[in-house]
Amino acid sequence: MRKERLIVPILATIAVVWMVAQLLSSVLFERSLRQALEDLEARGEWRVSRLESRQGWLSSRGRLMLSPLLGRPWRLELTYRARHGVLSTDVEGTLLPRLDSVLQKAVGEVSAPSVPRWQGRYQTLSGHTELRLALAPFVIQQNGRELDVRGARVRLEGMFGDWRLRGLLDQLTLTDGLSQLTLGPTTLESRYTYIDDAYHFAQRDHLHIEQLALHYPAYDIHVAPLDIHSHMELDESELRLKGELVVGEVRVPSEAPDTPLLSGRIEAELSRLNADAVRQTIRRLRQEAAWGDASLPMAEGLLARLEPDLRQVLSDSPRLDVTTIALDSPLLGLQVEADGALFFDARRLDELMITALDKPEERQRWLERIDGDFIWHDAPTVAALWLGLPLGTRELQFDVIRGVWRVNGRPMPPLLQP
Asked: Over the range 342-378, which residues count as b (16 or more CB within 10 Å of their CB) and which as e?
């Protein structure tokens, strides 16, 4: 009898624990979703709107709209339905791209067998999230041009402060009359780490294209493989951008089927972009976006209002370091081993006008702020011949003085001026 009297309290306790766990799972999922959307907006690149949100005990659902912060040429409408469990939440939904009327007319019709669907899971205790998306093949047609995308898959996983993305594309084909561009398989791997409100952040990306082919009526160009590495980091003092381009082999089969035209790598880093000014520019952009409406997200005169902040980004005299230029052309019998740096003179920034860069006189004023030098090591004889230097010259020193190029102390030949 005593044991029977304990059954009811035990069952009641289990029920209460289950109900509390369900409620906690729903609350934590909602908090994690809200935090993720705020972090996405903090980057200063996206506008996120919650069009619908219904939080429930056992399930929740909602609708989101994602669009670029600057303008609104396209939008992504995401729907989600979350089923809350004690230890995890399963999520599924749809993803529907929408174009504005101008871009819709320019691009033309988009055909797809069905609306893309995505799935995911949120771990209640750890906060770890995993989302998966598989895109059905789709075709975009416009005035005889055609973009055919097939076999696209995306996986996003991580938690607050650390997200990883992996995208796979089997093949993309762009056809314009008798010309055609084909690339794939393609892989994109990205990792984004940050602190609250993206005050500091770092992002690493690696784009790998296994094959790229350009087909023209007169000739073809094949590239295999092609890798692009990038690293962007915003810390207390500066924003740094580092990139590397690695080209496997470029071939022109119709001209030289057995000899590569080009291969090699280029590595460079842009640094000394003032961190506080970058953050202020992002805040100003988000404020401008908040003032906009659906038809005019950014008011006229935006660049003029941003100009003081953008000039301040350059206040620490940015520099571009080209640490590696290593190119080899067996077809031309030419090798390039070079490195160098360019510097921007940030004195009297108020004399420069970003809004007037479309005028040749203003562009010249900006070019006069650039100084630097590059060295081409062990240059071939033909390079010295092109530059009008003695044939025995083995090292070429390119100097940039107030935007004017010189080589080994001599003015650059007019035809070779950048």
From this structure: bbbebeebeebeeeeeeeeeeeebeeebbbbebebee
